[in-house]
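Fill in residues.
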C-alpha cells in the first residue's frame, strides 16, 4: 500500500499582495529567527501607482514613513540604507527635502522587493481553503500557468485598493476619453486632441493631474476645468498636532468607538486623508498667476468650480461628453459639455476572489466589511483558528491612519507580534501628546466635582496615564 506523500511544512505567514504595506511586513519579517514567511503578488514586478508618477509629484509623508524605520531604523531595508547603496546620501542631504519625489519612493520599494527572498512576483493566489489547523493556498505562476499548493498558519491580505468610478459615470465605462486618474500617465496621450478637458475630484490626485495639464497646455487655448464636490479646495490638515490623528494612540481610541460613530467620523475627517497638499494647491495658484501676467484672468481658459457634483455623465449627441451637474449651495443644475474627463475619484478596499472558498467562515459586518480587532485580525468562525490579517482594508475600524504610509511599519510590527505570540518588535506605549479619549473616573483620575467650598477654587481633572488611555481606547474589544 502506497504511503501518502507528506504535506510540506506550513509557512508561519503567507502574504497575499505585495504593495507597500505587505512589503513592509516582509521586510520586518525577514530577519526574525525561525519565522517562515512567503509573500506573493500576481504582477511580474513591484509598481506603486504607476499611473500617477507624474514628474515633480512628491509624497505627502516624510521619508521616515518608509518600510521599516519607524519600527526598526537599523533594518537594512530602510530608505537611508537604500540611499547608501545608491550612493545618494550626500545628494539627499543637500536636497533638504523631507518629502520624497513619488518616483523615488517607487524606486526604493522596487529596490527592496527585488532583493527580499520572501517575496515572489508573477505568482497569483487563486484560492484559499481552511483544512483543520492551517490554510491551503492554491498558487498559479502567471507566466507558465504552473500550479502548486502551499500551507500557512496565518494570512496577511495586502491586495490594495481599486479605483472608484462613481455611479454617475456608469454610461461612460470603457470610453477612451473618460478614465480614472490611476491610468493617467498611460492614457495621457489620448487627451492630446481634446480642446476641453475636465478633472473631477478634490484630492491630491485631482490636484496633481490638474497641475500637470496646466503645465502641458500653457498658452495653447485648451480649456481646463476642475470640478469638486467639496465646497472649498481646502488643503490637507498638516499641523503638527493635527497629524497626531495618524498615531497608534488615535487608532486605539478610534477602534474603541461604536461602529456608527466611526463611520460618521471617517466621512467628517476627509481633510485629514483625502485633501490635496497645501504645497500642490500653491503651485497651481502660482502657475495660474504667472500665465495670466499682462492679461485679464477671465481671458484664461481655466475653470475651478468647487461645490459642484456630477449627477450624470454620458456621450453627447453631437460628439464629446455631457456632464449634468448640480451646484451644492444653490441647488441649481446645468449641463456641461467637454471633450474628456479624468476621474480623480479615489479608491476602495478590494476583496480578493481567493477568499471565496472561506467567505462563509468570515464574520462580515452589516455593510459586508471585515470586522477586525486592534491587532488587525479579522473575526472568523470558531472553527477557523488561523490568523487572517488585513492591511489597508480596515478604515472603518481603525480610522484615517489606515491608508497612511506613516503607520505601515507599525501595523506590520503589530501583526508580526501577534503572529509570533511574542514581542518581536517593542512598540511605544504612547505616541501622541493629544489625549483623544475623555478622562476616566478611577484610580488614575480625579472626577471634576465643581467648586470646592473651602477654597473657592475649581479642581482640575487629572490626565490619565498612558496605560489608562490604552485601556479606555480598547474597552469593549
Amino acid at each position: 500500500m502506497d504511503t501518502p506523500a507528506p504535506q510540506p511544512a506550513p509557512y508561519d505567514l503567507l502574504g497575499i499582495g505585495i504593495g507597500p504595506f505587505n512589503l513592509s511586513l516582509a521586510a520586518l519579517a525577514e530577519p526574525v529567527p525561525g519565522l517562515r514567511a512567503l509573500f506573493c503578488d500576481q504582477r511580474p514586478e513591484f509598481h506603486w501607482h504607476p499611473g500617477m508618477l507624474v514628474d515633480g509629484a512628491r509624497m505627502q509623508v516624510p521619508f521616515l514613513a518608509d518600510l521599516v524605520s519607524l519600527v526598526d531604523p537599523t533594518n537594512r531595508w530602510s530608505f537611508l540604507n537604500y540611499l547608501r547603496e545608491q550612493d545618494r546620501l550626500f545628494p539627499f542631504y543637500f536636497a533638504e527635502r523631507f518629502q520624497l519625489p513619488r518616483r523615488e519612493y517607487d524606486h526604493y520599494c522596487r529596490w527592496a522587493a527585488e532583493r527580499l527572498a520572501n517575496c515572489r512576483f508573477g505568482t497569483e493566489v487563486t484560492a484559499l481553503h481552511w483544512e483543520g489547523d492551517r490554510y491551503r493556498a492554491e498558487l498559479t505562476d502567471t507566466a507558465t500557468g504552473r500550479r502548486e499548493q502551499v500551507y500557512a498558519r496565518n494570512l496577511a491580505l495586502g491586495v490594495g485598493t481599486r479605483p472608484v468610478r462613481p455611479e454617475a459615470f456608469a454610461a461612460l465605462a470603457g470610453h477612451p476619453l473618460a478614465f480614472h486618474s490611476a491610468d493617467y500617465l498611460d492614457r495621457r496621450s489620448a487627451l492630446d486632441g481634446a480642446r476641453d478637458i475636465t478633472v473631477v475630484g478634490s484630492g491630491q490626485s485631482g490636484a496633481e493631474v490638474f497641475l500637470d495639464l496646466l503645465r502641458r497646455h500653457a498658452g495653447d487655448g485648451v480649456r481646463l476645468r476642475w470640478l469638486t464636490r467639496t465646497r472649498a479646495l481646502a488643503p490637507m490638515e498638516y499641523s503638527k498636532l493635527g497629524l497626531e490623528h495618524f498615531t497608534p494612540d488615535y487608532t486605539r481610541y478610534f477602534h474603541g468607538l461604536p461602529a456608527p460613530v466611526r463611520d460618521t467620523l471617517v466621512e467628517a475627517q476627509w481633510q485629514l486623508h483625502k485633501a490635496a497638499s497645501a504645497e500642490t494647491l500653491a503651485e497651481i495658484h502660482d502657475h495660474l498667476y504667472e500665465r495670466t501676467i499682462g492679461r485679464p484672468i477671465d481671458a484664461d481658459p481655466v475653470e475651478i468650480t468647487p461645490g459642484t457634483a456630477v449627477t450624470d455623465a454620458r456621450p453627447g449627441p453631437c460628439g464629446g461628453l455631457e456632464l449634468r451637474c448640480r451646484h451644492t449651495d444653490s441647488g441649481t443644475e446645468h449641463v456641461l459639455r467637454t471633450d474628456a474627463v479624468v476621474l480623480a475619484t479615489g479608491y476602495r478596499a478590494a476583496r480578493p476572489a481567493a477568499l471565496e472558498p472561506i467567505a462563509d467562515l468570515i464574520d462580515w459586518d452589516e455593510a459586508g466589511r471585515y470586522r477586525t480587532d486592534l491587532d488587525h485580525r479579522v473575526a472568523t468562525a470558531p472553527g477557523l483558528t488561523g490568523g487572517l490579517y488585513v492591511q489597508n482594508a480596515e478604515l472603518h475600524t481603525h480610522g484615517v491612519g489606515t491608508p497612511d504610509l506613516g503607520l505601515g511599519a507599525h501595523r506590520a510590527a503589530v501583526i508580526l507580534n501577534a503572529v509570533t505570540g511574542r514581542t518581536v518588535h517593542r512598540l511605544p506605549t504612547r505616541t501622541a501628546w493629544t489625549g483623544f479619549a475623555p478622562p476616566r473616573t478611577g484610580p488614575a483620575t480625579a472626577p471634576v466635582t465643581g467648586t470646592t467650598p473651602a477654597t473657592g477654587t475649581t479642581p482640575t481633572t487629572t490626565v490619565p496615564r498612558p496605560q489608562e488611555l490604552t485601556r479606555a481606547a480598547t474597552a469593549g474589544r
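Residues 56 and 101 are 7 Å apart (CA to CA).
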